[in-house]
Every structure is written in structure tokens, then in C-alpha cells.
């Protein structure tokens, strides 16, 4: 990779570090609910630009989307540092969007998942999603150029993404195409070979393992925990939990607290 691309990549990593700090600080803000309304409005703007394949317009709203996160911290030095980094990256990021995202709707979907992660009850989810989001373009570049490296492994990419966004409604076909850069059937074959299970089964496993932690440590209702880990139907959650742990969530909680 040429030296200038190394510099740009390092700047992207610096930007993700600044934004991860901003997310962590914002999560403690009493104005969090108001901020989410603003960001949902920005998300709607992004969708409109994506539908029209308006790359410059999408890029402009995207920049404001991230800037408002950093500005919400009310730390002038943080915002100034972020703006300096973004100024150096601006032209490159627009180039990457235009060349490596043939469909802006895919990039819009990534922002949907990112905002959901920022609002997650789990701080590590918000931080990890921030770093993943800003690394996505570099993975696309490497995959397109067929510059295969260990970190580009399709299964590892998918597993990492699922482990971060497990609480959202995920589609394996979308993950295969947009995260791992392979077909859904190929990802499933690779997943079974490396993990011994399908991507859907892996998603269910991640959800249930996180649910078990919450059932044991949290006073939350079982229905709340089910929704928190990505289940829409509580009865399906209880069924899967019983299959995985040979007992219901309530029994699991009672035994853990003996």
C-alpha cells in the first residue's frame, strides 16, 4: 500500500478513536433522547440521498451525521481535532464512496446499524461499531483489489459484525455481500467449515450467550432481555433459550443466584 494510503488509513483510525470517545461521553448525556431525534432525522436525509444515488449530497449529510455526534460532547478541543482530521480525509472518503459503494442504500443500511449500536445499552457495542464503520471502506478496497490478508477472512468479518450488531435485525445475504464480499451460499459453506454452524446459528448463539449474561446479572424482565438481544417474539426466545441451556430463563436466573 503506498505511503499516502497508509497515512489516510491512520487518519481514519484516529477519526474512529475520536468518535468512539465521543460516543462514550454522549451516552452519559442527559440530552441523549434529543440527540437521537436529531440523528434519526439525519438518517432520513441519508436515505433520501441514497435513493437518488446522490453521492455528493450523501457525503455532505454523512459528514454532518458524524459531526453532530462529536459536537454533542460540548468539548471544543475534541470537535476541533475531529474537524482537522476530517478535512484531510474529506476528498478521499467521497472518492471511496463513489468507487467502492455501487449502491448507496448499502451504505445507508450501515448507518442504520451504526445508530442502533450507538443507542445500545452495551457501551462496548457502540465503541466496536464505531471502529467497524470507519474501517468498512478499507476492507472494500482490499477485497476489490484482491489484496487478501488474514483480517479480510470472510468468516471472521461476518462473525465480528454479527457479534457487534446481534441486537439488530440482520440478513445473512446482506452481510455476505456487504461485509464479507462473497455470496450468501459461499459464506454459509465457509462458516460451516470454520465454525461448525451456519451464520444464522452463530447469530442465535451470540444472542443467547448475551441473554444468559443478562438473565444472570440484570434485574430486567425476561421480555426486556429478549428484545435487547434481538428477539421480536418472546416465546421464540424462551424456546431457543431452553434448547441452548436446558432450562427456561427464569430457572436459569434462580439457579445462578443460589
Tell me about this structure.
This protein is mostly helical and about 260 residues long. It has 2 domains: about 5-145, Up-down Bundle (Four Helix Bundle (Hemerythrin (Met), subunit A)); about 155-258, Homeodomain-like (Arc Repressor Mutant, subunit A), CATH 1.10.10.60. It is about 80% helix and about 0% strand. The chain contains 13 helices and no strands. The chain has helices spanning about 5-25, 30-50, 55-70, 75-100, 105-120, 125-145, 155-165, 170-180, 185-195, 200-215, 220-230, 235-245, 250-255. Helix 1 (about 5-25) crosses helix 3 and helix 1 (about 5-25) runs antiparallel to helix 6 (about 125-145). The longest helix has 25 residues, at about 75-100. The radius of gyration is 20 Å and the shape is globular. The chain starts with a helix and ends with a helix. The model has no long low-confidence stretch (mean pLDDT about 90).
Q: Number of folding domains?
A: 2
What is the CATH superfamily of the largest domain?
GntR ligand-binding domain-like
Number of helices: 13
Order of helices and strands: HHHHHHHHHHHHH
Residue stretches low in confidence (pLDDT < 50, at least 5 long) are none
The major β-sheet equals:
none
Report the β-strand fraction as a percent range: under 5%
The shape is: globular
Question: What is the CA–CA distance across the termini?
Answer: 56 Å
Radius of gyration based on Cα positions: 20 Å
Q: Please identify the top-level CATH class of the largest domain.
A: Mainly Alpha
In which range does the helix fraction lie?
over 70%
Counting DSSP E segments of at least 2 residues, the number of strands comes to 0
Let me know the average pLDDT: 92
Class per helix and strand makeup: mainly alpha
State the CATH architecture of the largest domain: Up-down Bundle
CATH topology of the largest domain: Four Helix Bundle (Hemerythrin (Met), subunit A)
Amino acid at each position: 500500500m503506498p505511503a499516502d494510503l497508509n497515512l489516510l488509513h491512520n487518519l481514519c483510525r484516529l477519526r474512529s478513536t475520536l468518535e468512539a470517545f465521543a460516543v462514550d461521553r454522549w451516552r452519559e448525556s442527559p440530552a441523549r433522547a434529543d440527540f437521537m431525534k436529531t440523528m434519526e432525522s439525519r438518517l432520513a436525509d441519508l436515505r433520501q440521498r441514497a435513493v437518488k444515488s446522490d453521492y455528493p449530497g450523501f457525503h455532505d449529510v454523512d459528514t454532518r451525521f458524524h459531526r453532530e455526534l462529536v459536537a454533542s460532547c460540548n468539548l471544543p478541543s475534541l470537535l476541533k481535532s475531529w474537524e482537522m482530521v476530517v478535512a484531510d480525509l474529506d476528498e478521499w472518503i467521497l472518492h471511496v464512496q463513489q468507487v467502492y459503494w455501487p449502491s448507496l442504500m448499502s451504505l445507508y443500511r450501515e448507518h442504520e446499524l451504526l445508530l442502533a449500536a450507538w443507542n445500545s445499552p452495551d457501551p462496548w457495542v457502540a465503541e466496536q461499531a464505531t471502529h467497524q464503520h470507519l474501517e468498512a471502506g478499507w476492507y472494500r478496497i482490499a477485497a476489490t483489489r484482491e489484496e487478501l490478508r488474514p483480517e479480510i477472512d470472510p468468516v471472521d468479518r461476518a462473525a465480528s459484525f454479527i457479534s457487534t450488531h446481534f441486537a439488530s435485525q440482520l440478513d445473512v445475504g446482506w452481510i455476505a455481500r456487504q461485509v464479507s464480499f462473497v455470496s450468501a451460499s459461499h459464506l454459509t459453506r465457509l462458516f460451516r467449515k470454520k465454525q461448525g454452524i451456519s451464520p444464522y446459528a452463530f447469530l442465535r448463539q451470540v444472542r443467547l450467550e448475551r441473554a444468559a449474561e443478562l438473565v444472570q446479572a440484570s434485574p430486567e424482565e425476561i421480555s426486556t432481555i429478549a428484545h435487547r438481544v434481538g428477539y421480536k417474539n418472546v416465546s421464540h426466545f424462551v424456546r431457543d433459550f431452553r434448547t441452548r441451556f436446558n432450562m427456561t430463563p427464569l430457572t436459569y436466573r434462580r439457579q445462578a443466584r443460589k
